[in-house]
Recover the amino acids of this structure.
């Protein structure tokens, strides 16, 4: 289990206990008038929200641990998105039963917000898992998509291929879902680096810039990764 998985799980668990202790933190309830709050079963609502958030946190932690233990790291990295994606809309919808105020347009708005969240997360996952395009134009390399970058061939000090990579310690500013890892990460032995990974198996192309920055990428299959390696190596050796 990575540190980020543990932190995220503990965050949801802590949030669960917090909303039970301070119900005014619950979105929607905190903006109600005194009269409206009187028509809300706040004890039941805060208990329900606490339980849902704690379950989300525990499932993230246990799911990541078991998935990696059983040799399914792709599933493990996906749980950070899937569990909140399912659990939070469920909590928002089910929480309405504790509100005994007249619902009317307010209830419709709740479903609109949930629908928007679902569409937004779905779009984010689609964009994040779309393979980055790697284009070599003249003396520059352009990696498009989420966390895309452009670098000059003259900035690359070393380019190598590795069959295996050390484990990810933490995602500092990046995207992880299934076999897709993009953005800034910290790896064991390697340290800070920028990843553009589409497969959890090698080979991996490793570029080290003159300023020490490391960029690691691969494609969905070995042949494509090797072809990208040869194209970049040819460019920088001209």
């Amino acid at each position: 289990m990575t540190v980020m998985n543990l932190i995220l799980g503990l965050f949801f668990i802590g949030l669960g206990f917090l909303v039970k202790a301070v119900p005014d933190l619950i979105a929607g309830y905190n903006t109600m008038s005194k009269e409206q709050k009187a028509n809300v079963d706040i004890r039941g609502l805060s208990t329900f929200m606490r339980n849902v958030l704690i379950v989300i946190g525990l499932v993230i932690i246990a799911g990541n641990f078991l998935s990696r233990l059983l040799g399914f790291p792709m599933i493990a990295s996906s749980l950070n998105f899937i569990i909140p994606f399912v659990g939070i809309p469920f909590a928002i919808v089910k929480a309405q039963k504790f509100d005994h105020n007249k619902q009317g347009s307010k209830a419709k708005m709740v479903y609109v917000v949930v629908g928007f969240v679902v569409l937004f997360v779905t779009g984010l996952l689609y964009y994040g898992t779309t393979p980055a395009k790697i284009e070599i134009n003249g003396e520059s390399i352009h990696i498009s998509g989420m966390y895309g970058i452009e670098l000059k061939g003259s900035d690359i000090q070393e380019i190598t291929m590795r069959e295996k990579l050390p484990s990810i310690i933490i995602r500092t500013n990046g995207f992880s879902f299934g076999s897709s890892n993009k953005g800034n990460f910290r790896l064991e032995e390697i340290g800070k680096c920028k990843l553009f990974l589409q497969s959890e198996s090698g080979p991996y192309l490793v570029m080290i810039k003159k300023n020490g920055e490391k960029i690691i990428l691969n494609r969905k299959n070995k042949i494509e990764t090797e072809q990208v390696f040869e194209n970049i190596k040819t460019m920088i050796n001209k």
Notes: The longest strand covers residues 168-177. The CA atoms of residues 15 and 53 lie 7 Å apart. The helical segments are 3-21, 34-37, 42-69, 73-94, 105-129, 222-236.
